[in-house]
Specification:
The chain folds into 2 domains: 189 residues, Glycogen Phosphorylase B (Rossmann fold, 3-Layer(aba) Sandwich); 150 residues, Rossmann fold, CATH 3.40.50.2000. The mean pLDDT is 92. The longest helix has 19 residues. It has a 7-stranded parallel β-sheet with strand order 3-2-1-4-5-6-7, sandwiched between helices. Strands 10-9-8-11-12-13 form a 6-stranded parallel β-sheet, sandwiched between helices. It contains 16 helices and 13 strands. The chain is of the alpha/beta class and 360 residues long. The chain starts with a strand and ends with a helix. It is globular.
Length: 360
């Protein structure tokens, strides 16, 4: 009889669905005497249908075994509610291990619930550090790493970060599952997405904008700086396309947008990939989008003072500018392609994760 491992995968936010789809495909295809049985628990951290349900449809990811609908509220309240609910799910489903991704409240709650029930945790995208403890994501990723039995690192810098914190057992350099996703889904985006035509955009004739981090959306001074920069760029005859996060859309309701600044609803993953590839420059505060910009070979301007993906800056693809309008506009004017980054693996990170789990 094949050996069987029951995996409970905890996701709750848009980037995690993409990463989970890559690994789920690798687990389902594994044939070396091992049968992985995976169940997905969706915490509902992102509960808007355009941010969540549509992703399962476009990624070919199995429907969740449970959807907890625990988004909203403060970080502490959200994480506490998730912890209680996930503990119940783990007790009921009796998995062999818990699989978590990235740095969200869902990640921390899943890792903490599992650790308290003495269920081993595997953390995909381990070892990343911004060294900014004011970011909730930094707290989540550090704690998840120290709770995990297996740490799957995307870069050599991530491995080095863990070593500095005394974490060496169970650490594996596997490459970046988002690079797997970029390779696999970019072809589908080129073939199937019509988003440029629908929006009336020409290739390499627009800037793509994403803003979602709490440090930018909840600090009025920083948000005002970003809005001023975007409006100034639009006044300078740039076309900016901004898929607006639902939480920020509610905050900016009623604001008049200048011509040239196209504020649109969040888009499906394939459409987002097509927008990234078609953009001349990407402006973002998202860690994942910084990497996707490089995968698509598009210069990036990061609306933060630090990044977990330091290699993108070192290679010249990414500029850290914060929220000061002058710095943002200067970076847009000076943005150029950079050099090759030899960090993210060969596009088979998902299979490497499955191989390591099977060996264990």
């Amino acid at each position: 009889m094949p050996r069987r491992i029951k995996i409970l995968t905890v996701v709750g936010a848009r980037p995690q669905f993409i990463k989970a789809a890559v690994v789920a495909r690798a687990l389902a295809a594994w044939e070396d005497g091992m049968v992985f049985r995976e169940e997905i628990i969706h915490t509902g951290q992102h509960y808007d249908s355009t941010m969540s349900d549509i992703f399962f449809e476009h990624l070919g990811l199995a429907e969740p075994a449970a959807q907890l609908d625990l988004g909203g509220g403060s970080h502490g309240r959200m994480t506490g509610r998730m912890l209680e609910a996930l503990e119940n799910e783990i007790l009921a489903r009796k998995p062999d291990l818990i699989l978590v991704y990235g740095d969200t409240n869902s990640t921390l709650a899943g890792a903490l619930a599992a650790a308290k029930l003495q269920i081993p945790v595997a953390h995909v995208e381990a070892g990343l550090r911004s060294f900014n403890r004011a970011m909730p994501e930094e707290i989540n990723r550090v704690l998840a790493d120290h709770l995990a039995a297996w740490l799957y690192c995307p870069t050599r810098a991530a491995v080095a970060n863990l070593q500095k914190e005394g974490l060496t057992a169970g650490v594996h350099l596997v490459g970046d599952v988002m690079f797997d996703a970029a390779i696999f889904f970019s072809r589908a985006a080129e073939k199937n997405s019509k988003v440029l035509e629908v929006l009336g955009l020409k290739e390499k004739a627009f800037l793509l904008v994403t803003v979602h981090r709490q440090e930018n959306t909840d600090d009025q001074t920083r948000l005002d700086g970003l809005l001023t920069a975007f409006e100034d760029l639009a006044a300078e005859r740039e076309t900016l396309v901004w898929p607006l996060h639902p939480r920020l859309r509610a905050r900016l309701a009623g604001r008049a947008w200048p011509k040239g600044l196209m504020v649109i609803e969040p888009v499906a993953f394939l459409d987002m990939l097509r927008l990234e590839k078609g953009a001349r420059i990407i402006l973002t505060d998202s860690g994942g989008v910084q990497k996707e910009a490089y995968f698509q070979r598009v210069p990036c301007v990061t609306l933060r003072e630090e990044t977990e993906w330091v290699e993108t800056v070192a290679a010249g693809w990414n500029r850290l500018v914060g929220c000061e309008p002058g710095r943002i506009k200067k970076a847009v004017a000076e943005a150029t392609p950079g050099g090759v980054i030899d960090e993210y693996g060969d596009g088979h990170s998902g299979r490497e994760i499955a191989r390591i789990l099977a060996a264990l």
